[in-house]
Design a protein that fits this description.
single chain, 2 domains, four-stranded mixed beta sheet, 12% strand, Ribosomal Protein L15, Chain: K, domain 2, 294 residues, flat, 8 strands, 45% helix, CRISPR-assoc_Cas1_N, Four Helix Bundle (Hemerythrin (Met), subunit A), CRISPR-associated endonuclease Cas1, alpha/beta
Length: 294
């Protein structure tokens, strides 16, 4: 079996009889004589060549830049429940995903069940997410109160992280209509957040959970993706953003977005960010692969 990128070959995914995810880039994914194949010019973990892909043993294929996929390949993967995510380099962008097959909906069913219990289980999940982020279980059960506490603490976190990286900081400012108008540290945070959200998108796709059913975020079609991405704001998003911002402030010729994508990809691999997100999703709903009767 091909070694997976980003450490994903060891990630635990809902398909008990499958073996995780693989990363493919700079090649053509097609079907020949009933076999899914990938012909690549080389790059990343694969040398140039023609590879048979064991799609029936995979939960998800992450298809990177410079790649094409045939209609027959999409049909074959859909029939056998193998998901496909079109991604940027090293998972720092996520463009589209093909739904996973219907063979295991355990996590999605648990997510839908607790989400539907707005006054009980849903707020309990939100409190668990906040506990993971803030390091303590807050006694409050009102979501607006929890959001206010988190917002106040994040202001201090931004200040401390900026101080750690010796970055001038004047507060978090983001104009959705004109994101480039922000100062350089805020632009770096915007780019870093986009990268981490892409990683969370891949983790949500891999676990076949439901992106629109968020517990802290509510309005976005990717509300649950944002919930998972926020778990990594302190440990990944801000260190990534401020580290690159510091370099860009010292070297005005730095292409901020390009530099951040490269650093993000290396961080995702080195720190196993996507597998950690997958484990968090499983833990959030108390789902274990060994428990097949849930």
């Amino acid at each position: 079996m091909l070694k997976g990128r980003l450490g994903l070959e060891t990630a635990r995914v809902p398909h008990a009889d499958r073996h995780g995810l693989i990363w493919l880039a700079r090649g053509n994914l097609f079907v020949e004589d009933g076999t899914l194949r990938f012909r690549t010019a080389g790059g990343g973990d694969l040398d140039a060549g023609d590879y048979a892909i064991p799609y029936q043993m995979l939960s998800l294929i992450v298809l990177g830049p410079g790649s094409t996929v045939s209609h027959d390949a999409l049909r074959l993967m859909a029939r056998h429940g193998t998901g496909l995510v079109a991604s940027g380099d090293d998972g720092v962008r996520a463009y589209t995903a093909m739904p996973l097959g219907p063979d295991d909906s355990r996590l999605a069913r648990r997510q839908a069940r607790v989400w539907a219990d707005a006054d009980g289980a849903r707020i309990a999940i939100a409190r668990r997410l906040y506990a993971w982020r803030l390091g303590e279980i807050l006694p409050h059960r009102d979501l607006d109160v929890l959001r206010g506490i988190e917002g106040a603490r994040m202001k201090e976190t931004y200040r401390l992280q900026a101080e750690k990286f010796n970055i001038p900081w004047h507060g978090r400012r983001y104009d959705r209509a004109n994101p480039s108008a922000a100062d350089l540290p805020n632009q770096a945070i915007n780019h870093a957040a986009t990268a981490v959200e892409a990683a969370a998108f891949i983790a949500v796709a891999a676990t076949a959970t439901l992106a629109p059913l968020g517990f802290i975020h509510e309005d976005s079609a990717n509300a649950f993706v944002l919930d998972i991405a926020d778990l990594f704001r302190d440990s990944v998003t801000l260190p990534l953003a401020f580290g690159v911002a510091r370099k860009a402030l010292r070297d005005p010729n730095t292409n901020l977005e390009r530099e951040l994508r490269g650093v993000a990809g290396r961080m995702f691999r080195d720190e196993q960010v996507i597998p950690r997100m997958i484990d968090r999703i499983k833990e959030l709903f108390d789902a274990d692969d060994a428990d097949r009767n849930a």
